[in-house]
Design a protein that fits this description.
By secondary structure, this protein is of the alpha/beta class. It is built from 9 helices and 14 strands. The protein is globular, with a radius of gyration of 19 Å. The two termini are 37 Å apart. Bound molecules: threonylcarbamoyladenylate and magnesium ion (MG).
Length: 309
């Protein structure tokens, strides 16, 4: 393991792309201080370049070198880092991170991941690492090294294999730039946990057509098949993705109705359902609390009319 982490860190320093596991999903990493390396990420993913990237660092101290943390941002960082939380804060002046990573915004999205391989890589590379999910733009996020190989295999220098992602959903993104803590993207850390820590409700990120966080683009996270949501059962010719008790269902997000388990299984099962060749995937109803909010968000995007990119 040490050998492969050292090798991966060297590749990053040389400006190459390295896919690595985090507890949320696999990331497509590049040295955040090299414009060219960051540009490679956009190119490899075929991502519209107005989409800013999350900058990964090993600790809050390092994060504070790149962004300005107010009281509430610091509080959340101390409580939930390392973990499935991304904080968008004002960029520090003279910050070493490529402006391309912020896509021209005066803000920066920072995250300290918990996965031991991600931590080891960040410490070995001794620099901030941009890492969007390691999938071609508009496709499902990868939760195994095999997904990364399938989607981007020929574009990355190294893929670190850390097994299936424990959480399986991208990080929750909270913005601190409009005066009020705002939920920009629901994700692997439930809104309720954050609101409890802050002692007040989060502002909501708003309109998918005017994305302040482009993870909010309408069609995103799309499998090849079409999706039909809140389906009690499959119609003729549809594949069924169940949640909770569903005797005989071949694909079930969580037979016991556990939302955390469902989150961890979501992208893997969508991948699997896609390989069955079904034209339509009917998805059972999923409660909208806890991690259910993020699961329903991803499903809605996957079901939305497809945009060209
Ligand atoms: O769990 C995750 O967050 C994964 C792992 C690899 O860390 N990464 C991930 O990155 O999901 P990505 O690039 O697929 O999603 C990043 C989201 C995008 O929706 C982007 O618009 C938003 O973060 N974002 C990045 N910088 C931002 C900024 N300065 N202001 C607002 N949104 C920002
Ligand atoms: Mg993504």
């Amino acid at each position: 393991m040490t050998q492969s982490v050292t090798h991966a860190a060297e590749a990053l320093i040389e400006g190459k792309l390295v896919a690595f596991p985090t507890e949320t999903v696999y990331g497509l990493g590049a040295d955040a201080t090299q414009d060219k390396a960051v540009a490679h990420v956009f190119a490899a993913k075929n991502r519209p370049s107005f989409n800013p990237l999350i900058v990964h660092v090993a600790s809050l101290d390092e994060a504070a070198a790149h962004g300005e943390f107010g009281i509430e941002a610091s509080e959340l960082a101390k409580l939930f880092w390392p973990g499935p939380l991304t904080l968008v804060v004002p960029r520090r002046e003279g910050c070493a991170v490529s402006l391309l990573a912020s896509a021209g915004l005066p803000t920066i999205a920072l995250r300290v991941p918990k996965h031991p391989l991600a931590q080891a890589l960040l410490r070995a590379a001794r620099r901030p690492v941009v890492a969007p999910s390691a999938n071609p733009s508009g496709r499902i996020s990868p939760t195994t090294a095999a997904h990364v190989r399938e989607g981007l295999g020929d574009k990355v220098s190294v893929i670190l294999d850390g097994g299936p992602s424990a959480i399986g959903l991208e990080s929750t993104i909270i913005g601190f730039t409009g005066g009020r803590a705002t939920l920009l993207r629901p994700g692997g850390l439930a809104r309720e946990d954050i609101e409890k820590a802050l002692g007040h409700k989060l502002g909501s990120g708003g309109d998918a057509r005017k994305p302040s966080s482009p993870g909010q683009l309408e069609s995103h996270y799309a499998p090849r098949a079409k999706l039909r949501l809140n389906a009690k059962a499959a119609k003729e010719g549809e594949a069924y993705l169940a949640f909770g008790k569903a005797p005989g269902a071949r694909f079930n997000l969580s037979p016991t109705g556990d939302l955390t388990e469902a989150a961890a299984n979501l992208f893997r099962l969508l991948h699997e359902l896609d390989t069955t060749g079904a034209k339509v995937i009917a998805v059972g109803p999923i409660p909208d609390h806890g991690l259910g909010e993020a699961i329903n968000d991803r499903l809605k995007r996957a079901a939305a009319p497809r945009s060209p990119s």
